[in-house]
Amino acid sequence: MVIKPKIRGFICTTAHPVGCAEALKRQIDYVKAQKPIEDPPKHVLVIGASMGYGLASRISLAFGGGASTLGVIYDKPPQGNRTGTAGWYNTETFESCAADAGLYAKTVNGDAFSSDIKDMVIDVIKRDFETVDCIVYSLAAPRRTYDDGTSVSSVLKTVDNEYTNKTINPQTAEITKVTVPTATDEEIENTVKVMGGEDWEAWITALSDAEVLDPKAVTVAYSYIGPELTHPLYKDGTIGKAKEHLVETSKKLESQYDGLSAFVAVNKALVTQSSSAIPVVPLYISILFRVMKEQGCHEGTIEQMYRLFAEKLYNPEGVIPTDENGLIRMDDFEMAPDIQAEVAATWEMVNSDNVRDLADIDGYNHDFLELFGFDVPYVDYDAEI
């Protein structure tokens, strides 16, 4: 069959196996072209390892540091005339490239929230590693199902007041107004349960109880803060409440487990499955991309994750730089005053007529399609698969 992108809202329901493979190999090639990570971890667990920051973390630590990696994913293989998920193809390619490089790489496919998957992962660690010394928590899920079968879902809403601002349909470049409603207390609580630190803590607890957590392990989870423009929706909204809980969890973990280093890395705005679902954010990202590319400081996912591990968590000086709140700021380029000043000025004047001149819509759409293996250079998308 010939596979083409089928976009429904903010997701693509198809994925191209050749395109996914080529995009992943380009990330590997980038890391291999950089300086090796000094004193890297040996045995790494990546929870949420098939796309975005989790996948880039796995690539950086494996091909930049020679680490053995165990990934947890929740993806579907191809079946009949349905393609597999992008994460399935990414993982398949990663494991193949790791094997060619002589690197250990195994993956557990299932719901990372469940105790059964935690037990399966622990069994693999006991058999193959004994302990893990780095745990990357990069789970992004719209809902969480507990072991008793009950489920809770996250919402993208404000906390105090409704929020109205510009948003964009990236496919048509049409800018419209959107109003985001206020969440109920229950919706806030459920969003924290799905996207906060509760499951991160459950993973660390399970690893410790099973005696497979290295006494000097490092663990990191990912967050975002963004500019004041998006604060009502993100930082001060339901997602922000979950991310506050994530930070609280990092401090709780360090106090509970002597020797464990737990960090939250605040990353730059990038096109991911999660960010594409948030109103207002795609327009902000498109403007940001144009400004940062013109200034020569734009980073993609792999550049940022390599920098996190090579220059922050495992830097040669051995001192991990954090801000006054203990956060690792990977959004330092994005939040530079000159960058934000130009983005803010552009935001005030952008409309449907001038958006292609003022924002990098083509770059946004390329990054979105590339998530699913499309719009990757040198791939024949008319070829039978």
Could you characterize the architecture of this molecule?
The strands form four sheets. The protein has a seven-stranded parallel β-sheet, with helices on both faces. Strands 1-2 form a two-stranded antiparallel ribbon. A two-stranded antiparallel ribbon has the order 7-8. The chain has one domain: NAD(P)-binding Rossmann-like Domain (Rossmann fold), CATH 3.40.50. The protein has 385 residues and is an alpha/beta fold. It is 41% helix and 17% strand.
Query: Can you say what the CATH homologous superfamily is?
Result: NAD(P)-binding Rossmann-like Domain
Order of helices and strands: EEHEHEHEHEEEEEHHEHEHHEHHH
Radius of gyration: 20 Å
Per CATH, which architecture?
3-Layer(aba) Sandwich
| CATH C-level name | Alpha Beta
Task: Please name the CATH topology.
Answer: Rossmann fold
User: How would you sum up the global shape?
Assistant: globular
> Can you count the helices?
12
Labels describing this entry:
385 residues; alpha/beta; Rossmann fold; 12 helices; 13 strands
Structure described in brief:
The protein has 385 residues and is of the alpha/beta class.
Summarize the SSE layout with pairings.
Blueprint: E1 7-8, E2 11-12, H1 17-32, E3 43-47, H2 52-65, E4 68-73, H3 86-100, E5 105-109, H4 115-128, E6 132-137, E7 143-145, E8 151-153, E9 163-169, E10 174-180, H5 185-195, H6 198-209, E11 213-223, H7 238-256, E12 261-266, H8 281-295, H9 301-313, E13 328-329, H10 337-349, H11 355-358, H12 361-370
Parallel strand pairs: 3-4, 3-6, 4-5, 6-11, 11-12, 12-13
Antiparallel strand pairs: 1-2, 7-8, 9-10
Helix pairs in contact: 1-2, 1-3, 2-3, 2-9, 5-7, 6-7, 8-10
